[in-house]
Amino acid sequence: MKKTILIFIFIFLFLNLRTYTQITDYTKYVDPFIGADGGGYTFPGAALPSGMLKVGPDCNKLDENAGWDAKGNIVGFSHTHINGSGGGCKFGNILFMPTVGEVKPLDYTSPRANEYSEVGLYNVYLTRYKTSVRLSATRSAAIHEYTFPETDKANVMIDLGSFLSSYERQEFVGSEVRILSDTEVEGYSRIRGGWNIGRAYTVYFYAKFERPATSYGTWKSGQLYLNEKSQFDSNEKTGAYLTFDTRQNKTVKVKVAISYMGVNKAQYNIKEIPSWSLETVKSNAVIEWNKILKQVKVEGGSEDSKKIFYSSVYRIFLQPNNYKGENPLWASDKPYYSDYHAIWDTYRATHPFINLLQPSLGADMVESLIDIYRFDNYMPDARTSHDNGRTQGGSNCDMLVADAFVKGVKGVDYKTALQAMIKNATVPPGDDERKQGRGGLWDYNRIGYVSTDFERCGTRTLEYSANDYAIATVAKGLGETAIYEKYKKKASSWENLWNPEIENMGFKGFIWPRKSDGTWVDTTKFNVFASGSLEHPFYETFSWEYSFYAPQDMSRLIEKMGGKETFINRLDTYFTKSFPGKLGELLFYTKLVGMCQISNEPSFLNPSLYCYVNEPYKTAKIVRQILATQYTSGRDGVPGNDDSGSMGAWYAFHALGFYPNAGQDVYLISSPIFQKSTITLENGKQFVIIAKNADEKNIYIQSCLLNGKPFNNCWFRHADIANGATFEFVMGDKPSTWGSNGELPPSMSNQK
Amino acid sequence: MKKTILIFIFIFLFLNLRTYTQITDYTKYVDPFIGADGGGYTFPGAALPSGMLKVGPDCNKLDENAGWDAKGNIVGFSHTHINGSGGGCKFGNILFMPTVGEVKPLDYTSPRANEYSEVGLYNVYLTRYKTSVRLSATRSAAIHEYTFPETDKANVMIDLGSFLSSYERQEFVGSEVRILSDTEVEGYSRIRGGWNIGRAYTVYFYAKFERPATSYGTWKSGQLYLNEKSQFDSNEKTGAYLTFDTRQNKTVKVKVAISYMGVNKAQYNIKEIPSWSLETVKSNAVIEWNKILKQVKVEGGSEDSKKIFYSSVYRIFLQPNNYKGENPLWASDKPYYSDYHAIWDTYRATHPFINLLQPSLGADMVESLIDIYRFDNYMPDARTSHDNGRTQGGSNCDMLVADAFVKGVKGVDYKTALQAMIKNATVPPGDDERKQGRGGLWDYNRIGYVSTDFERCGTRTLEYSANDYAIATVAKGLGETAIYEKYKKKASSWENLWNPEIENMGFKGFIWPRKSDGTWVDTTKFNVFASGSLEHPFYETFSWEYSFYAPQDMSRLIEKMGGKETFINRLDTYFTKSFPGKLGELLFYTKLVGMCQISNEPSFLNPSLYCYVNEPYKTAKIVRQILATQYTSGRDGVPGNDDSGSMGAWYAFHALGFYPNAGQDVYLISSPIFQKSTITLENGKQFVIIAKNADEKNIYIQSCLLNGKPFNNCWFRHADIANGATFEFVMGDKPSTWGSNGELPPSMSNQK
After folding, report:
1. Is A429's CB within 8 Å of B428's CB?
2. Looking at CA atoms only, how far is residue B190 from chain A in angstroms?
3. CB neighbours of A204 closer than 8 A, spacing ≥ 6?
4. How far apart are CA B25 and CA B288, in angstroms?
5. E strand segments, B303-442
6. Neighbours of A508 (CB within 10 A)
7. Which of A408, A689, B92, B493 has the most beta carbons within 10 angstroms of its beta carbon?
8. What is the β-pairing status of strands B686-692 and B725-732?
9. Digit-coded pLDDT (tens) for A585-599
């Protein structure tokens, strides 16, 4: 009897131990290199979630938006990077580079081999110096491990004059360096400009080496000063080097911490890495990333799709970055996130994904936007290096506020947020209207649309309308009826650019640029396929595509397009006909599915629009086609600029089987690729998506139960899943009538 | 014979030596304390001309715009100050304070005695600590000399949490401190806000003590950390103290250098003071100041008037400050001057005085404005702590460009300056329209005046008109005919606010606030004596006074007022009738001569306006009355806020006998107070003003010769004196007809 009990206890303990030790390491599915090549510009180095410091390689080629490029030499390893931006460079500050032999401040780059990365680890071999490099990171500190050949001249170069500068250039402002001892160096690099045309920012650093250097020196403007310990700031590029003897011990380790406050703070931040074990730092990164990744457990899909999926989720949480305690502009107890780069990209899917998995993080980000409004004039449409800029289309920070609001995200001062939104809608930003707020606002508020007197007149009008609905949404929720009514009315402003006379491919009515006197731009001067950059009426898209953009009022848009059947035909045409415009104009959407530029954000919602006419099987078909053909686990596996995880978020949502209409309490169902996905919400409740039979062929939903009851809408609300829920889909290889008789998703025009 | 020759040689040498040794020290006439009290807010500490560092006392009373106040305790001695501003505080950074006994970071202020200053020296005795303090300064470094009682606890407190904050508050952002050794401390203080609502700025410092401290410590948020050498930046107030033993040697000296770049640069800047002799630093300051002061030699006036005169010239050159090599925002080879505080005050007299004495300095300042436009969006109307803001009325930087241009100031890129001026006139600043550019520009360019929809509508309209004439002036000179024509036309915009129906004291026609629909503000809601601050139609003035403001077109204004006689009567009334408005409204002009608020800049040109109707004796009379009754050599000797030397410049010009119409090639003659003034121009030529018989009674010009020839105009051009000239006035105690038949000064309407 006693023996039996003991055996049971043993078995019990053993099972528990097994459970404990078998915690899945989801980071094994993450490859930070996915999307680094082929225009994805993902960041392949090491970083924590929202990590202020992002340590990785900088390469001397033009395509170096995240520092890395497939070609060219490695310049060194800097500590600040942006993920996925296709715009001009930012960051690339505080660059370290191991070299061997003579110290050459102007010539130290190296070819490379054996380059790969994992969560919390970047690895490369520098062939010029026969030196291996491994990097890992905490929130604001990095550890570098260099394995040199045996030499008495193993150098570590610290170049404070280096920064990313391919185009839309950053400009050098100044730098200082000071060797404090034979194991310590500190200083700063000060840079301005770049993508957001930002004011000067200063990255301070403190570096601590594991063992003493045998000699050292500094440089200024390329001129070496042997044994000189410091260089002051005369607006010139400075640097320092420490030389080590690696004949006995080939390894040189250095910890580097950064700060936006000062060198003492950087020295404080280095405490994030107490030991000299790179493995410990990496393990910590794996633990931190697993805290997020384990919130979504997917089963019954290919290993490759899991790799793409978890790498996508990884990139969603890589940025914006947490700068708490690192704000050199004002003192505040509020959260401080930066590197919104840009919200035009991320409001659509990235932030809704964050609000789904980690609403407390979403709250901190919105609180941060509000604090930026309080102390720095406007909520940003984009912000990096502590300065707002630059706007792409609307004031889409409004969408972030509304998205958090409708999803019940707690801990946000929505009253102040509403003031900030109203400022966007009423106070022209002036001067550089690409910086913040709403350019062309005078027109918009006076004549109901942004006229051709202003750049991006089409994009701005459409997005301001959607943004106004976001304002109305929050105002309504706060009981501000007058504000609600006012902005609900303004949310129809896009209709002022609806030109019913324009006809193309048999469809009538397109969004069209309009002059301030009310007349339309002549069709000889503009066509439905024309697009361009910031100066163009349609920013990074074209009328055919952006004529589908009225996310706040799809029912009205469908009506304007001629009703359900015409709308479906028009979407079909959009997804199947080849783009007939000039390819030379296609700067931003070289990857097309039909005319849909799936490589850029303006297309993001369009595959889901069939849900607004209860034809979800068509959404399933096009979404599955894009997922299967445009995303891979290769280094060029992202179809467009990842844009701070935007491409990743599009993939992640659709892989789970739904996609948000951002700023509204609506998820539109598409087609789950995994047979089971279990999302553990922040409140501990589980949101389970079962997709029986789901595979590459069984892409169509045949039936659906929600919490065991038949569910026939092809959309659902956040409230439906916020406290846990189970969707049970049965998938098949033929379109079904499921969803065709459900309630339509809400649109402004069909709501009270 | 030989003996005679030798004697002659001796006499010759002796005379030469006498000449050499008798070089006048004009700084003996300068008392930096003139105007420090009574609302003048002059800076009484030590500084070089345009010195970036201005070391002086900060007092814990509300009236501490320049740090100093007559009442309250001395808090300590900080290194950055503004001269003469009546607006909210700026600066007061990096505060040092000697104390004795226990170290108390939150309680160390002291009453004072024996406080005085000279050029390059500030002196005070701290009664709480029985300690004497002497301060002197170079461009970016200071030397402090503390004479303690005999004690083993003589402390020097370094408070990086201290800054001036009476109203329109500066806000604390952060600070760091680090004790490098027993003789060295460095760190920074970071502040935002204040008068210009500026972004955060950082003042770095490096301090070197003459002898080692016996103990030390730091603090954060008031909490002491004995023996702890550093405090990092956590947005909290930090500080450090060093304790000395003064039982053998009562003197503790410390050099303190500041920088806006970094601590290494501050350490570099300390080389400006090579020795430990405060006397040497002071002597150097005297030499530097004499280089300017000796350019004007005045003779035949009272000692008191010389004291007022040279102290005035001193203050003209005290600010804006030279930040060359200290720009943390961009790298540029151009000059970098800042602390334009504000150009609304200084364009009228201060900068014209600089252009007269030191056109190369004037050129550097305009070049600096252009560089600010290039890299920081707009030329400033005011700028301090590396940020523009805040505008008072027009975009009066335009006046600085025009003033330099018409006076032939070389070395300015006038083509780019014209672009910058046109930006002011065409690109609305947006958001905070008090920051830069032209607020209400939309109205001004659309309907020809700034309507009551915008604040300061009256002041803005009038000044934009004058600014537009400045643009026209430069455009004309550069051969840009179309621009010239356009802006000449716009320079008449002030007429759109001329309301011919308003009548007061028998005079018809006043400048009046107007609504955007073209109707006038009702007389029941507005009157000719109403004034206020930034929100008011008339900024710091009232319609009666500012109806005289059309400096670009006095002939047209005189015509609108009803012709010469009415104009004279109206000016007479203005200078003689008591102000009948409510005194409570007179926030900014408590010192009045009749209705003329001589204590503020909007009145500055008005005493000279009689010259526009050839009645110069009336100008002489009122100017002499103001000089004699409103300016003294006392600490309250300036009638209003000195505003970066504005009051000083008004005095200095009129003491010499003329006054500029800024931005135009016109000096209007008033009444010289010295019997001879010799101005040595920068090109070495002499501009001599002889005023025979001039004294307190002989104030009227009876006759005039220019270079020996009769001169009957009551005005002259810069070209008349730019290569040297001699005016010979004969003065008498009765008005004469001199000047009554001369050519009228140029006005826009009577020019081709």
Report:
1. no
2. 8
3. A186, A187, A188, A258, A259, A260, A261, A262, A263, A265, A266
4. 11
5. 321-322, 337-338, 383-384, 387-388
6. 15
7. B92
8. parallel
9. 555 547 889 999 999
Q: Cα–Cα distance between B673 and B651 in angstroms, integer?
A: 10
Return the CATH fold of B30-288: Beta-galactosidase; Chain A, domain 5 (2.70.98)
Domain covering A27-288, topology: Beta-galactosidase; Chain A, domain 5 (2.70.98)
Averaged pLDDT score across all residues of chain A: 95
- Beta-bridged to residue A189, according to DSSP, are A175, A203
**Could you give the count of Cα atoms lying within 13 Å of B44 in the half-sphere of its Cβ?**
28
Tokens 């000039």 belong to residue: A582
**Residues of A with Cβ-Cβ distance to B199 under 8 angstroms:** 199, 329
pLDDT of residue A167: 74
The model's pTM: 0.95
**Shortest alpha-carbon distance between residue A129 and chain B (Å):** 33
User: Token digits for A228?
Assistant: 């000189």
Q: What is the DSSP letter of A22?
A: T
Is A331–B235 a contact, with Cβ atoms under 8 angstroms apart? Answer: yes
The CA distance from A212 to the nearest CA of chain B, in Å, is 21
Which positions in chain B touch A230 (Cβ < 8 Å)? 264, 267
pLDDT of residue A86: 87
Taking one residue from A and the other from B, the number of pairs with CB-CB distance under 8 angstroms is: 127
Q: How far is CA A420 from CA A376, A397, A409, B198, B451, in A?
A: 11, 10, 18, 20, 26
Q: Which two tokens stand for residue B192?
A: 């935002």
Show me where the domains of chain B are located. 30-288
Question: CA-CA distances (angstroms) from residue B32 to B29, B338, B626?
Answer: 10, 21, 21
Distance CA B672, CA B608 (A): 13
DSSP state of B330: -
Query: What percentage of chain A has pLDDT greater than the value 90?
Result: 92
Q: What is the pLDDT of residues A613-650, one digit of tens each?
A: 999 999 999 999 999 999 999 999 999 999 999 999 99
Using DSSP's 3-state secondary structure scheme, residue B626 falls into helix
Sheet containing B170-181: which strands, arranged edge to edge?
B112-118, B121-126, B131-137, B141-147, B251-259, B198-209, B184-193, B170-181, B230-231
**C-alpha separations of A707 from A172, A665, A690, B18 in Å:** 59, 19, 11, 108
Task: Round the CA-based radius of gyration of chain A to a whole number and report it.
Answer: 27
Phi, psi angle pair for B255, to nearest 5°? -100, 140
- Position A114 scores a pLDDT of 98
Query: Which chain A residues have a beta carbon less than 8 Å from that of B230?
Result: 264, 267
Residue B736 φ then ψ, to 5°: -125, 180
**CA B173/CA B183 separation, integer angstroms:** 27
Q: How do strand A686-692 and strand A725-732 relate by DSSP bridges?
A: parallel
Instruction: Decide if A264 and B231 are in contact by the 8 Å CB cutoff.
Output: yes
What per-residue confidence (pLDDT) applies to B647? 97
Spans in chain B with pLDDT lower than 70:
1-22, 583-589, 752
- Please give the Cα distance from B650 to B593 (Å, whole number): 15
Residues of chain B contacting A233 with CB distance shorter than 8 Å: 259, 261-262, 264-265
User: Closest Cα of chain B to A235: distance in Å?
Assistant: 6
